[in-house]
Design brief:
7 helices, 6-stranded mixed beta sheet, alpha/beta, elongated, binds magnesium ion, 401 residues, binds adenosine monophosphate
């Protein structure tokens, strides 16, 4: 109980979850299954990319110097020497005064050092009029300009986007080393909770958190395992956490995390494991527990879904990143200007929901227990612990939901 009075700062809480996070082991997946997985090793390319100098436009390969001064009024004239076929190399050389047609992606013939876009040319029989000068290398991708053989194309710790997958494909990485997705056990506690499939009776509410937390875990690259609703009962809680901890890499429990003596999550964790943090200087989200059950990290989240979500973003995200090995940021932000004053207490990190419109972030004040603002707001603005509030007109970073 007394621990709860000793609030730790957000950075300290993050450090604590980082310390207890164990990176999951590596496994391999096929390239087609690698989207959103975290790379377990740097990936190198086995070839030069591109492997040949090629045109990036449809046009005529020329010696750039010979186009100097070309214009609509005074085009330069080249002898047409033929066409390059897509996907094949050609022995023909561009001699002085000659040009060769190259399709986009076609190999640049020897002798040529630039390509004039077809739009700036006119072919008349065996001659091509060039109406625009090109510089050396213009409209051309040089041999290994993208990546040289042996270059690292994608770093360990990167969560793979569709764009990364494309680069891995180009590098010939068909079997991708990734970090195993952490299994995260999810428990909701509270005598008032009923499964979402039920109509709550007076005094009851549907279990929102199981699905909020599970979706967040999924979004962050984890594998949620649901352990359902547990009553506010020591033995029931003990056996649920015990089962979840033995089957999972981490356990997230929501509800029962405050100092109210009916809220026994911290007590139960302390019986079997260790409670390192009980109470964080964050609003909303103060009644948060960070602990361990054996070696398995366990986080107790506040019951209010809106508060729980802030703790997921501010703290749990770092626990999951420690387990997946993800090095980049897994949140997206936009810059905006604050449309209203936001008061805040010094010594506490505040997360204020905002609606962003035309670059203005308008705070959504009101009852933090309401769910509707979670859907209607754009994201949250973090007010740092050393700040006593932010004034209208302050540039802020909005963490997008
Ligand atoms: P607690 O932290 O257990 O005191 O809960 C704080 C508030 O959050 C109470 O109003 C609970 O009914 C609510 N709450 C707790 N767990 C959930 C849940 N899984 N889904 C929705 N609301 C919850
Ligand atoms: Mg409760």
């Amino acid at each position: 109980m007394s621990l709860f009075l000793q609030l730790v700062s957000v950075p300290k809480a993050i450090e604590t979850v980082r310390d207890i996070a164990v990176r999951c082991r590596d496994e391999t997946v096929s390239l087609g299954e690698a989207l959103h997985r975290v790379l377990a090793q740097d990936i190198y390319t086995d070839i030069d990319i591109p492997g040949f100098t090629r045109s990036v436009v449809d046009g005529f390969a020329v010696r750039a110097a010979e186009t100097t001064g070309s214009s609509d009024a005074i085009p330069s004239i080249f002898t047409f020497r033929g066409r390059i076929a897509m996907g094949s190399s050609s022995g023909i050389l561009v001699q002085p005064g000659e040009c060769i047609y190259v399709p986009t992606g076609g190999i640049l013939p020897g002798g040529a050092d630039a390509v004039v876009m077809i739009e700036h040319t006119e072919q008349i029989g065996g001659e091509v009029l060039v109406r625009r000068a090109v510089a050396y290398g213009e409209n051309v991708l040089l041999f290994n300009e993208d990546f040289a053989r042996g270059d690292a194309v994608c770093p360990e710790g990167k969560r793979l986007s569709p764009r990364d997958i494309g680069v891995l494909a180009a590098a010939g990485c068909t079997i991708v080393p990734v970090v195993r997705m952490p299994k995260v056990g999810i428990i909701s506690t509270g005598n008032e909770l009923v499964p979402v499939s039920e109509k709550p009776l007076p005094g009851q509410i549907r279990d929102v958190n199981t699905y909020v937390v599970a979706s967040f875990v999924q979004e962050q690259g984890g594998l949620p395992l649901l352990f359902g609703i547990v009553r506010d009962d020591r033995d029931a809680l003990h056996s649920a956490i015990s089962r979840a901890a033995s089957e999972c890499d981490a356990v997230l429990i929501s509800g029962g995390s405050s100092k109210d003596n009916r809220d026994m999550v911290a007590t139960v964790i302390a019986e079997k494991g260790e409670v390192m943090v009980h109470g964080i200087a964050i609003a909303p989200g103060k009644p948060t527990i960070i602990g361990r059950w054996g070696t398995t990290p366990v986080v107790g989240l506040p019951g209010h879904p809106a508060s729980a979500y802030i703790v997921l973003i501010a703290i749990v995200r770092h626990l999951l990143a420690g387990m997946t090995g993800e090095t980049g940021s897994s949140i997206r932000v936009v810059q905006a200007t604050l449309g209203q004053n936001v008061p805040s207490s010094k010594g506490r990190e505040d997360y204020v929901r905002v609606i962003v419109q035309d670059g203005i972030a308008s705070p959504v004040f009101g009852k933090s227990g309401l769910l509707n603002t979670l859907v209607q707001s754009t994201g949250v603005v973090r007010v740092p612990a050393d700040s006593e509030g932010l004034e209208t007109g302050t540039p802020v970073e909005v963490i997008l939901w």
